[in-house]
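Before relying on records like the one below, remember that each one covers exactly one chain. Contacts with other chains, cofactors or solvent are not represented anywhere in the record.
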Amino acid sequence: MTDAIVVGSGPNGLAAAIRLAQAGVRVTVLEASDHPGGGTRTSELTLPGVLHDDCAAFHPTGVVSPFLAGLGLDRRGLAWDWPEVDLAHPLDDGRAGLLSRDMAVTAESLGVDGRRWARSIGAQARNFDKLVAEVFRPIVHVPRHPVALGRFGVQALLPATVMVRRWRDEPAKALFTGVAAHAFGRLDRPLTSSIGLMLTAAGHAAGWPVARGGSGSISASMVSLLTELGGEVRTGVQVTSYDQVVELLGRRPDAVLLDTSSTAAQQILGDRIPARVRRQLSRYRYGPAVHKVDLAIEGDVPWTNPGTRRAGTVHVGGSSAEIVAGEAATGRGEMPERPFLLVGQQYLADRSRSVGDINPIWAYAHVPHGYTGDATEAVLSQIERFAPGFRERIVATAVRGTSQMQAYNANYIGGDINVGANTARQIATRPRIALDPYRLGDGLYLCSAATPPGPGVHGMCGFHAAESALRRM
């Protein structure tokens, strides 16, 4: 029987393992942590019984992933829950832009820009199935839906700062800019509209759901399926070299797939990677980071805007111009006074995460790569800015700075949860320019978020890497 080793049990590593096992390959997954899941784990970080997602929290790409959708994970315990409003972006004047599966709700919140938003973003949402089939693949491929891809590409190439000029008022401008800021870093560069377009279109087409019981249920369901297919997950195994893999397996595997950072892949494989490929990988860059703050609060967040009180995800950053300035600062290595935040109110959709009237609040701030300061006060101040009285409801706090994020998951170098900077070059050609970006050498593959289509809990990086391996087995 053909053997494969997968290093790392994040959603991409598990997706790669499942795809290989489906093809009859004997698969062993090696995970450094005592628990599988990578960025999709859930823990009691503040108080007993109060559930917090350790990293990934909202799953617009998970619910639309072509690979995950076909695995029947619902039969293994995975269920999606949707909040009443998928995303809110509150403003200082009390208004908020709302992203909803119901385009009418969004349009009403955007006032004078409602119709224009519905035309531009709605067009992408209406063709979202075709768009996913194209965008969730390496950039070099024969398009199956060239018209849909072309319409997306024309807008995706724009800097986010140019894209927002089509709207006149701040709710629409800020709403789109906040979503585009998921790219981390400067928003005045080409292709920075691409992530904003994909995630807003996904919000209208499928929503931004949470996994019932926490993101860890995604990993648990995938491990269950892999085990059923004959695969194995070994936890507590820190892989540092290829020779160690051979020793653990007792023989040389036919394929090794690494759900790791590009840096770790080079360290593990060494000169087994051809010199030309190593030179390309050496140019790979990491981006801004996160400072994560988890809170247990009594009751709900007292947002000034009523729509925001119903939103599963909240972007806290003020105006479009303020977000652009803050993201530019983190890209330069400077800590902004008012950082851009993602705030999670997952319990609004999934009450199993709460204990009585004590609810979990998940939040992180965008900070410079490797930031060594404490951004906790900045996080609390930003939330208090749009929800006066919030601090009085906090009963417990847990903090992870950039170094703690990397300790939690070694792929998050310097606290970069995207596993690589989303520059124009790396959005299009991560981790290197190649017809097969997953293949590192003979029987060696990279399957992490450092490969196409990039960050997100969708498993498509692992799926495509496994397909590359299977073609050569």
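DSSP finds 19 helices and 17 strands in the chain.
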